[in-house]
Write a structure and sequence with these properties.
Elements: E1 8-14, E2 17-22, E3 27-34, H1 52-58, E4 61-67, H2 80-98, E5 103-108, H3 110-121, E6 126-132, H4 142-147, H5 155-159, H6 166-176, H7 180-191, H8 195-208, H9 216-228, H10 231-234, E7 238-239, E8 242-243, E9 253-258, H11 266-275, E10 281-286, H12 292-295, H13 299-312
């Protein structure tokens, strides 16, 4: 079964990053998907019937996705601000190419954290914001927060060696649940005779083993500022010399949390709703873990239609395209 099944085109490049536009007849307010910086984007378009992208296109939504690409060795100096600058340029391209004065943004995992920071400084360009399992209050970030506690975790020593490799990061996730790989294997053996289960298992395994490095400079800021100091939730985080205060967000905001998420426990994501100034807020709790909630058997029944219905309230998926507008630089 092929991965990344939804037809698409590369419409913009920025360094190692690409902007993907999925072929559809959708119009209206465009939707930009922002995945995690350290996982490959196609978890959002994994396979037929297990694809958030497929569902958004089927709902008539003009859907884009930021593929962060694979950092090279020299990208160890790519800063947190560089990453956010790349996100902003991609968002501007979406607006220019569609003529839309505003766009909707859906961030997943770390992509949701980055999207919230971007939104805090660009609220006037935002039609709607969705945080899909992305941490905001890092004091609620569970085992991962404990693992990188500054009392015993020296982020400078890690970043000094260059980009953080996928193997380093995977070892941390495996340490959270040491028996997970064995349990996963036994679970697969129980269902190995079912072709659908085999396809789902091998697709997920291919994605899960296709991770990318974390640029060292950005990693240092992410761990130090967000995990160790919790500066985003505290309102003290700054990018480009300006405060990134979540209270500046007035656009409609939705938070989606998974009920068995160990990577981003529900309280860590739900904190966004406590922080924004929007009067239109919604919380959707879906079954599953951090990844299973997005691609599991219940995603097409709960997650995908829930997102599409909520976005439709704000013109995302409308068939009438807006007149082109000139964006200020």
């Amino acid at each position: 079964m092929p991965l990344e099944p939804t037809p698409k085109d590369v419409v913009f490049r920025d360094g190692t990053a690409r902007l993907l536009r999925f072929r559809s007849k959708g119009g209206g307010v465009p939707l930009l998907l922002v995945p995690s910086l350290i996982n490959r984007w196609y978890v959002l378009d994994l396979r037929p019937s297990a694809s958030l992208v497929e569902a958004m296109v089927a709902a008539g939504i003009d859907t884009y996705c930021l593929d962060w690409g694979v950092p090279e060795d020299e990208d160890r100096y790519l800063s947190w601000e560089d990453v956010l600058g790349r996100l902003d340029r991609v968002a501007r391209f979406v607006q220019r190419s569609t003529g839309a004065p505003k766009l909707a943004v859906l961030g997943y995992c770390m992509g949701a954290t980055l999207s919230a920071i971007w939104a805090s400084q660009h609220d006037s360009r935002l039609a709607a914001l969705i945080d899909l399992a992305g941490p905001i209050d890092f004091s609620q970030a569970g085992v991962l927060a404990t693992m990188v506690d500054e009392r015993w975790f020296d982020v400078d020593a890690i970043a000094a060696a260059g980009n953080v490799s996928p193997q380093q990061m995977q070892s941390g996730f495996q340490a959270m649940r040491p028996t997970q790989n064995m349990a996963k294997l036994f679970g697969f053996l129980d269902r190995a005779q079912d072709p659908a289960s085999r396809n789902a298992f091998f697709a997920l395994e291919e994605w899960a083993n296709d991770n990318v490095p974390f640029p060292a400079a950005a990693y240092k800021t992410y761990i130090e500022e967000l995990y160790q100091k919790n500066s985003l939730f505290a309102g003290t985080h700054r990018v480009f010399g300006q405060p990134a205060q979540l209270s500046s967000i007035t656009a409609p905001t939705m938070v989606i949390g998974a009920d068995r998420d160990a990577i981003c426990p529900l309280p860590a994501a739900r904190a966004l709703l406590e922080s924004v100034s929007s009067t239109d807020k919604e919380l959707l709790v879906v079954p599953g873990g951090h990844v299973g909630a997005v691609i599991g058997k219940n995603a097409s029944k709960v997650l995908y239609p829930g997102i599409a219905r909520w976005l439709a309230k704000y013109g995302v998926g409308a068939r009438v395209r807006p007149e082109p507008v000139q964006l200020a630089h």
